[in-house]
Design brief:
globular; Jelly Rolls; 6-stranded mixed β-sheet; 0% helix; mainly beta; 4-stranded mixed β-sheet
Length: 155
Amino acid sequence: MEPAPQDRGPARYSRITANMLGLVPGFALQDGDLMAKLFTDMGAWGLGALVNREFQAQGNSRATAAQIRSSVTLVTHAVANNNAVRVPIIPECTSLRLFNHSSPAHAILVYPPNEYMRIGELAPGASVTMLATHAALDLLYVGGGQWYAIVLNVL
């Protein structure tokens, strides 16, 4: 007896979606979400897929800010108060996470990728201030040049 057409070959797998498998776009490899990993010019993208455990903030404007290239970044060095970082352009509906563990403790300015993008209700190109040590910030890019920031407390 021959199998029904819907049970033959690779076509039967084409109906399986990421949602059916319990996978939700935006989670990282360690969460088991291989299908929802996104690719950009920086390589694989997903929260936690690229981690920088030692990063230095620098400058005090978008033009002189240190360019972030990871989805999770731990800022461990900031020479002065209001040193800056600039987030990368990432795929829509994805996010990145910043931790401020600078030593000595300094506030950090976080800038969008370019002067046309905005974080929350701030003016286009304006920075958000990340408070000194033990602060964390989730930044979600929703597309159309709009970012949203969620402040997290870190113990």
